[in-house]
Design brief:
The structure is a homodimer. Chain A has about 450 residues and is α/β, with parallel strands linked by helices. The first copy, chain A, contains 18 helices and twelve strands.
Chain lengths: ~450, ~450
C-alpha cells in the first residue's frame, strides 16, 4: 500500500481473437467470415481496493494487432495519472487523447486511432464506476447534469447543440428519474435479436431461430440482406411467415449498396414490411442516406455502427437522413462522445437503437441506453438494443436477457471485464487455442503469418 | 534471374521521422510541434531490371509506428503478385485491399487503414511507372480513357458520377493533350508557397519569407491562422503590406473552428482580402462547410487534406460546400481513389489545388495535377499546387520549382523514392540521428519510450 495517491501504473494490451468464422456466425453481405476479436486494454492501478479499468475495441480479425498498436501509442497519456482526478473527470483524459496533435493527424477522430481512444476512455469509465461502486448506467443517471455537460466535447457540434441546450435536456431528463430507475430494475430494457438472420445460415436454421426468438419474448428480429435479391426475398418471406405480422423485422445491408440500389432493393422487399433498413450505403454518405430515406418511406432508415464520430451523427440528424440512430459503444471515442451523440439524438427527437453483438458490445452499450432511458430521453418507446447470443460467457458480468429484455446490470463498472482464462486461451497467436489451431490449420483466415506483433505485453 | 515471371518478393516497411519540431517548421493552430514523418514502404521485386515500388503515408510523428503496423497488415495481399498483372491493373490490388472484409472493419475507407492502403497502392503505381519508363503523370496522361475508367471504384459515388460520364470527361480531356503536354514541359505547373506563414514564426521571419516568395515568382502565399485573432490581424496586415494587392493570400485554420466561429473569424480578416479560407472546421462537416461558404463569400472555402475518401469529397461537391478541392496524394486510398476525386471535381467544375508539404507530398501530388491539366480538366486557371521547401533533399527525384512553377518530372516513377542514406539516418529509433538524439534528449516529443515497435523489418 503506497502512501502517495493511487495512480495508473501500466496500460496492458491484449490481442484476443475468437474463431467465429468457423460457424458463419456474424456473416453478412460485406463480412463473410468474421473472427470476432477484441483489442483489449487494462489500466493497471495501485488502487488499494485493487480496481482496474477494462476496455476494448471490437474488430473482426485481421488488423486487431494494428488496433492494439494504436492503443499502445496512447499509453503515455494514461500511465501515472492519479485515479482520483481521472475518475472525477474522465473528460480530461478524453481531451488529452483527442488533442494529441501528432496522433490527431492519423484521424482526426476516426478509424483506428479514434477507436483506440474509445477503448482507453471506456476503460477509464469502467474504473470510475468500479471505484464508485455503481454500474456505469447508474453512475451516469445519478450524476449532476452540470458535470455531465462538462464531460461533453462540443467542438464541431455547437451549431447543432449548445452546452446550455444540453444542460436543459439533462435537467428535464432528471424529472421522474427515480420512477424510471425502479421500472428499469423491475422490467429491464427491450432488446431485439439478430441471431436468426446471418446470411450464412440455411433457411432451416433461419426458421428455427426466428421461431425461437419469438418464443424468447423478442418483439423484433433482424435479417442480413444485400448479397442476392432472390435470396433476400425468399428469406424475408420465410421469416415473416414464421414470426407473423406483429413482430418487427429489420433488414441490414451492411453498406452493400449505392444510393440508387438501396432504394430499389429496399422497395423490392417492402411487401414483407421491414421496419427499418440498416446501413443501406456508406456510413460516410450523409446526403445519400437522406435521399434513401425519402425513397424508401415508410420503411425507416437506420445507421450508426460504423459512423465515425459525433460530427457525422450531427449531420445525419441535421439533414433528416435517419429515423433511427444506432450508437456503438466502441466505435467512437468512448463514453464522452456517446454522451454527445445521445444528447444530439434527444435534441432532434430521434430514437437510439444501439448496435451490439460482436464481442462485448452488448455488455457495454446496455449501460448507455439505460442511462438514456432513466435520465435523458425518458422513454423506451421505439427503442431496442440489439442482442446477439455470442461470446457472453467470456465476461465476468455478462448481459442477462430475459423475455426479450436486458436486465439492468448491478455489478460496479462497465461490464467490460473479461475472464482471465478467456484472455489466456484466445490471445493471438500465443494463447492455448491459437497455438493448437495454428499448428493444424493455415493461419490465413485471421492474420498474415509474417506478423511480428507481440501480444499481451505491458506498454 | 528467375525463369518464372517476376513478382513482388517482399513488403519492407520503415518508420522514418525527421525532427522538424525543433524549428517550428509546420506549426499551425492545431499542430504546434510536428515531427514530419513517413511510414515508408518498399515493394521488393525480382524484376530483372531491378525496379522496386516505393510509397509512404505522411504523419507528423507519434503514431508513425501504428501506420507502419497497418501497412504490414496489408502485406499478404501484395507478396507473390506477378508484376505484369499488377502493373497492367493496379486497380486489382486497390480492390483487394479495400475489399479485405476483416480489415475493412477498421475503417471503412478512412484513417490509419485507408492511408496504409494508399501507401501500398501508390507504391504499386510507382513500380508501374518505373517499369513503363515514364513519370507517373505521363503514364496517366497517355493512358487509354477506358483503362483509366477501369481503375476507378465507383462504389458510393455512382449517384454523382457514372462510369459513362467519367469516360466522356476523359475522352474530352484527351483533346489538345499533346499541346498541353508541350506547354507543361516548357512552363511547369503553378505553385504557391506556405513557407512564410507558419504560426510559430516571428513577424520578422514572416516578412522576410513573404518578400522572398514574391521574389521567387510565386503569385500566392498562405498564412496559418486560428490561434489568436489579434495575432492573425497583425500577421495578415503585415503579409498583405509586404506582398501588395496583386498576390493572392490564402489563410488556413487547420480545423480550429466551429461553424459560427469560422464565419466570424474569417469575416474579421476580410479586409486583408484572403483568397481562400482553408480547413475552417472539421473535415467531416460537409453541411458545416456549406454554411461557412455562404457566410464568408466572396472569400472562397477550401478543404481536402484531411478529407478521408471520395465519399466525403462527393458530398462536399453535391452540397456546394467548397470552392477549391484540395486533394492529398497520401491521405486517401492512393492513385485510384484520387482519379475518382479528380473526375468528381471535373464533373462539378471545381478547381483542384492540392495539399502538399510534409515529407514527399509535393513529390507525389505534382503528378496528379499534371495529369489533370494534360488529360482531364485541361486548364491551370485558378489551380496551384502547394509548395513548402522542406525535406526535398531526402528524395532521389526531388521536385524542381522555378519561378513559382513545378517543373514536370522526367524520371520514371512517382518521385517517391527516398535516398537509402536518409532512410538509414532517420529511421526511428534505430537510425543514426535518433540514436544520437535519444541519448541526449527526452524522447517524449515523438514517441512513448516504451514502444516495442521494430523498424525497417521486412514483413
Amino acid at each position: 500500500m503506497s502512501s502517495t495517491p493511487p495512480r495508473v501504473t501500466a496500460v496492458d494490451t491484449y490481442d484476443i481473437r475468437f474463431p467465429t468464422s468457423r460457424e458463419l456466425d456474424g456473416s453478412d453481405a460485406m463480412n463473410p467470415d468474421p473472427d470476432y476479436s477484441a483489442a483489449y486494454v487494462v489500466l493497471r492501478t495501485d488502487d488499494p481496493d485493487g480496481h482496474q479499468g477494462h476496455g476494448f475495441t471490437f474488430t473482426i480479425g485481421r488488423g486487431n494487432d494494428v488496433q492494439v498498436a494504436a492503443i499502445r501509442a496512447l499509453s503515455h497519456h494514461v500511465v501515472g495519472r492519479p485515479l482520483d482526478a481521472l475518475c472525477a473527470d474522465p473528460g480530461s483524459l478524453n481531451r488529452d487523447l483527442i488533442g494529441d496533435s501528432q496522433l490527431r493527424w492519423l484521424g482526426p477522430e476516426k478509424g483506428v486511432m479514434h477507436m483506440a481512444i474509445g477503448a482507453v476512455v471506456n476503460a477509464a469509465w469502467d474504473l470510475a464506476a468500479k471505484r464508485a461502486a455503481k454500474p456505469l448506467w447508474r453512475l451516469l443517471a445519478e450524476a449532476d447534469p452540470e458535470w455531465l455537460v462538462s464531460q461533453v466535447d462540443f467542438r464541431y457540434i455547437a451549431d447543432a447543440l449548445t452546452p446550455e441546450e444540453a444542460l436543459d435536456l439533462l435537467k428535464a431528463g432528471r424529472q421522474g428519474a427515480t420512477d424510471r430507475t425502479a421500472r428499469l430494475v423491475e422490467r429491464g430494457y427491450p432488446g431485439y435479436t439478430t441471431s436468426p438472420g446471418w446470411l450464412g445460415y440455411s433457411d432451416e436454421k433461419l426458421t428455427r431461430l426466428a421461431r425461437q426468438a419469438v418464443a424468447d419474448g423478442f418483439t423484433q428480429i433482424k435479417l442480413k440482406v444485400g448479397a442476392d435479391l432472390d435470396d433476400d426475398i425468399r428469406r424475408c418471406r420465410t421469416a415473416r411467415a414464421v414470426v407473423g405480422p406483429d413482430i418487427r423485422m429489420a433488414i441490414d445491408a451492411n453498406q452493400r449498396w449505392n444510393v440508387g440500389d438501396a432504394v430499389q432493393w429496399t422497395n423490392a422487399l417492402a411487401e414483407f414490411e421491414p421496419y427499418w433498413v440498416e446501413e443501406p450505403t456508406s456510413p460516410d454518405d450523409i446526403l445519400g442516406h437522406a435521399l434513401i430515406r425519402r425513397g424508401v418511406a415508410p420503411v425507416k432508415v437506420a445507421t450508426g455502427e460504423h459512423v465515425q464520430n459525433r460530427v457525422v451523427f450531427k449531420q445525419l440528424l441535421q439533414a433528416g437522413a435517419i429515423d433511427i440512430l444506432q450508437i456503438d459503444a466502441a466505435r467512437v471515442g468512448g463514453v464522452n462522445e456517446n454522451l454527445a451523440i445521445l444528447l444530439l439524438a434527444a435534441k432532434f427527437g430521434v430514437p437510439v437503437c444501439p448496435h451490439a453483438g460482436g464481442v462485448g458490445l452488448c455488455e457495454l452499450v446496455q449501460h448507455l441506453s439505460m442511462f438514456d432511458f432513466v435520465a435523458l430521453s425518458g422513454t423506451t418507446e421505439d427503442r431496442v438494443i440489439e442482442y446477439v447470443d455470442h461470446l457472453h460467457e467470456h465476461f465476468v458480468d455478462p448481459v442477462v436477457v430475459r423475455q426479450g429484455h436486458y436486465a439492468a446490470p448491478t455489478a460496479p463498472g462497465f461490464s467490460a471485464t473479461m475472464h482471465a482464462s478467456s484472455i489466456a486461451e484466445f490471445t493471438y497467436p500465443d494463447g492455448e487455442f491459437w497455438v493448437k489451431d495454428l499448428a493444424t490449420t493455415a493461419p490465413e483466415s485471421t492474420q498474415a503469418p509474417e506478423s511480428t506483433e507481440q501480444n499481451g505485453a505491458a506498454a
